[in-house]
Amino acid sequence: MIPSLGYAVLLIIGSFVLNLVVSKIRFNRKYKFPNVVPGWPIIGNMLDVPYPAGMWGVDMAKKYGEMFTLNIGGRRLVYLNSSRVVTELLEKRAAIYSSRPYRPMMSEIMSGGARIVLMGYTDKWRNQRKIMHSILNGKQSEKKFDDELLNFILGYTGTLGEYQFNPLKSPADVFTWLSRLPKPLQWWRPFGEKFCETHVAMFQKEYNILLDKMNKGIAKPCFAVDVLHGAAKKEFEISDVEKIYTWTSLIEAGSDTTRVAVLQMIAGAACYPGWARKARDLIDEVCGQNAERLPNLADRSRLPYISAVVKETLRWRPFLQSGVPHTLTQDDEYEGYKFPAGTEFSWNAYSIALNDKEYSDPLRFEPERFMNDDLKLPAKGHCRRICVGLNVGANNIWIAAACILYCFDIEQDPEHPIDQFNTLWEEPTKPPFKVRFTPRSQAHIDLIEREGNIALATDY
Ligand code: HEM
Questions:
Q1: Is 222 among the annotated ligand-binding positions?
Q2: CB count in 10 Å sphere of residue 168
């Protein structure tokens, strides 16, 4: 009896292993990935990807060429290392290359399944995109955005970033089968649930205040009001939790990106002052040399160089250093490779930005490289599942860059040189680098104070 039970168990294990081997052989015959990087059994290359991954990505691209493939705990992740392959796959074939990887911890537990940046191509995603698009790409994109939630949101974007880009931080997002363990065994779950609860409570509080103002007819025009009006339309029937995530996702995705971009521009001005002097001379021609007025968005057509500054700011040291993974939704072939549905793709942002075949003298901050026909397309070359807030983002950087360059001298502090390769500025309350920031003249100080007082007295 016992021996036959033993044989039966052996048989089951044997057929399981055989099945695995046969499936693997079939998979390998059917599909072909570019430059597969050797890894460990089961975990694959999970321990190979550092955080942040920018310079690692540069070295890997030098070693493996235009594309290479990692195995992250069984998931295939293909890095695209030239703008040629990024354009061919993520842009021209965007219809099938734009979903998102399944992330049970980040997307479901930490975000209640309602945070757009983590969603696959679903109806939920489409609804939120439509609402956001209608708000951000109309006249609103030229208005000011402000909000009490900002500090709260800036305080946790670093945590989201780490979960997004560091495979070691979130095992359940790498080995997604772990999410099928009984809940008490999911050691990561309490943190995720607490994270989500705290956020929903905070968002809900702000949401109720806003609803109350809207009901009393005293809500000032702002994008949060537009989100709620948009979400109230019949064609966008979404839950209350989704409504508040739609609204707060805009602040989340739009604030820290803009903060880091403006810092990046300041670092670029301190390290390569030549372009900043040129920009200021051009602004002087439009706004006057004696602090007559601050530049504004209506000056854009007369200041194309500042638009080139915005593009160069986003190129110089991309702060989403190794891109944001996209998921392929159906099998596809490209230049002899065969990718199964579910393969993940990321654009290797650092390696593209710092490659001298893509940009001459790429380490320099040089807005001149963008003084061409693409100038009016701020996202070209920088965003893929196209950033829904790119017009707002580009306008915000534009106005910040123009005003800062007009009013301040920016210099490196020789005692504290700026680390140009560190763009992981996750603590918004701490200065990320030292720089000498001097008002240009008393007239400029007066102008800043006048404008500052008007801004402070404005009730949003
Ligand atoms: C410097 C400014 C900005 C940069 C560099 C930037 C960059 C990006 C990138 C790289 C993505 C991911 C694209 C992809 O997956 O292929 C993204 C998505 C997104 N961005 Fe931006 N962004 C900026 C400003 C903004 C602003 C101001 C807003 C809103 C007001 C915004 C809202 C969003 C949203 C909601 C998504 C998610 C879209 C989706 O997953 O469908 N962004 N952004």
A1: no
A2: 12
Short-list 184, 407, 421, CA closest to 316: 421
Q: How far apart are CA 332 and CA 92, in angstroms?
A: 13
Q: Ligand 1: which of 257, 322, 328, 385 to mutate, most ligand atoms within 8 Å of CB?
A: 257
Q: Looking at residue 187, what DSSP letter applies?
A: T
Each domain of the chain, given as residue ranges in start order, spans: 1-30, 36-457
pTM of the model: 0.88
Nearest to 136 by CA among 247, 6, 282, 17: 247
pLDDT digits (tens, 9 = 90+) for 310-349: 999 999 999 889 999 999 999 999 999 999 999 999 999 9
Distance CA 134, CA 140 (A): 9
Ligand 1 touching residue 321 (CB < 6 A): no
> Does the beta carbon of 260 lie inside 6 Å of ligand 1?
no
pLDDT band at 220 (very low <50, low <70, confident <90, very high): confident
Give CA–CA dist 172/106, Å, rounded: 9
Q: Is the CB of 257 under 6 A from ligand 1?
A: yes
Q: What are phi and psi of 425, to 5 degrees?
A: -100, 80
Read out DSSP for 381-429?
Answer: TT-SS--TTHHHHHHHHHHHHHHHHHHEEEEEBTTB---TT------TT
Q: How far apart are CA 152 and CA 129, in angstroms?
A: 24
Helix H or strand E encompassing 13: helix 2-30
Would the CB of 253 count as within 6 Å of ligand 1? yes
CB atoms within 10 A of CB 129: 17
Residue 405 identity: L
- Alpha-carbon span 204 to 199, nearest angstrom: 8
User: How far is it, in rounded angstroms, from Cα 398 to Cα 376?
Assistant: 12
Q: What is the mean pLDDT of residues 168-187?
A: 90
- Is 266 touching ligand 1 by the criterion CB < 6 Å? no
CATH topology (fold) of 36-457? Cytochrome p450 (1.10.630)
Question: For ligand 1, atom 26, which residue shows the shortest CA distance?
Answer: 254
